Hints:
Layout: H1 3-31, H2 42-52, E1 59-63, E2 70-72, E3 77-81, H3 82-86, H4 90-107, H5 111-139, H6 143-180, H7 189-224
Parallel strand pairs: 1-3
Antiparallel strand pairs: 2-3
Amino acid sequence: MGLGTLLIYFAVLLILPLWAQSKVKNTYKKYMKVPSSSGMPGADVARRILQENGIYDVRVEETKGFLSDHYDPRKKVVRLSSHNYHEPSKAAAAIAAHEVGHAIQDAEDYAFLRFRHSLVPLANLGSNFSFFLIIAGILLTIPGLLGVGIVFMAFAVLFQLVTLPVEFNASNRAMDQLVSTGVIANNEHGETKKVLNAAALTYVAAAVVALMELARFVLMFLHMNE
């Protein structure tokens, strides 16, 4: 890999995640100030969608942090950051519906969600140990050690890739639920979609970066075995 290619590679690795995060924050901050036509805070949006789908064993709770919203499948809880929990904005409605989308996936035993859950132990191993194995393999010029590190890393990358259909599916469910439950009007569809699309960019960027890193180490492994 030449110097110019290497610089481009590291520039992409640095810039892509920062751009995705900036896009999310700017879009969210824009629409967190725009009230939805229903006037429902995110907590009520989440509870309505859960009830409309016959899901009564999932709680909706407030959590601290900025965009710390998530669904916890182990405890059956949708956690919404303070603004999204309390405020009736378009951004809050979109985020709340997205997290409930994961709860619906869980209730319906969505295949990709189950697959992602099954990958968690391997992905954690890959995240925790692959870097050390890869660096040791490179510094000590031991192809086998590098290869083992790449295998561990591949599990973490696979987790990132499987996350994409899970997140996009949750966003699609969110849009359908927001419209069918009357939380947003048809003329709000485009603005709500912008919030969900911006959030999805962070997962796409993470997957691209992970794939690029994996490809770089695979090339090193092949070169080491020439």
